[in-house]
Design a protein that fits this description.
Number of strands: 0
Radius of gyration: 30 Å
Largest sheet: none
Number of domains: 2
Structural class: mainly alpha
Order of helices and strands: HHHH
Length: about 150
């Protein structure tokens, strides 16, 4: 029984030692970073403002590229989902020529899947537009802050 209590005490002491070492390491790292700072970050020449505006234009261009790529991916995915729904409905139609309940359900499922694909694509495109607009607003705000 004493062995278990000894293990428990050693475990608690070990946790405290590890926690203390971690905290000391974080404090030393913060202290060293404050001593070795970059003086260029404190005050820069006025040329940096022009660079900041150029960078904001580049960020907006990249955001536009990402938006176009995302919308292309969304459209491709939507088309693939529609194609798969049509293929499944055609397979059921080819397997059952009598116009049974299963064939009607397959066609209703196809129509529902296509409608949902359109809705999901539109919703995702709106989210992409909102993200792009947020990036543009943020870059404009940063650019205005430097002007």
């Amino acid at each position: 029984m004493k062995l278990n209590s000894l293990n428990k005490i050693a475990s608690v002491v070990g946790r405290w030692v590890i926690t203390t070492l971690f905290c000391v390491t974080v404090m030393v790292g913060a202290w060293q970073n404050s001593l070795v700072s970059n003086p260029n970050a404190i005050a820069g020449p006025a040329g940096d403002v022009i660079t900041a505006s150029d960078i904001s234009g580049g960020v907006k261009d990249k955001a536009g590229d990402v938006e176009r790529g995302s919308k292309n991916l969304i459209e491709n995915t939507k088309d693939k989902v529609k194609d798969m729904a049509n293929r499944n409905a055609n397979r059921v139609d080819a397997a059952d020529d009598s116009g049974s309940f299963v064939e009607g359900k397959a066609k209703r499922d196809r129509d529902r899947i296509e409608r949902r694909a359109e809705e999901d694509a539109a919703r995702t495109e709106r989210a992409v537009d909102a993200s792009k607009n947020a990036v543009e607003r943020a870059t404009d705000a940063i650019k205005d802050a430097f002007n």
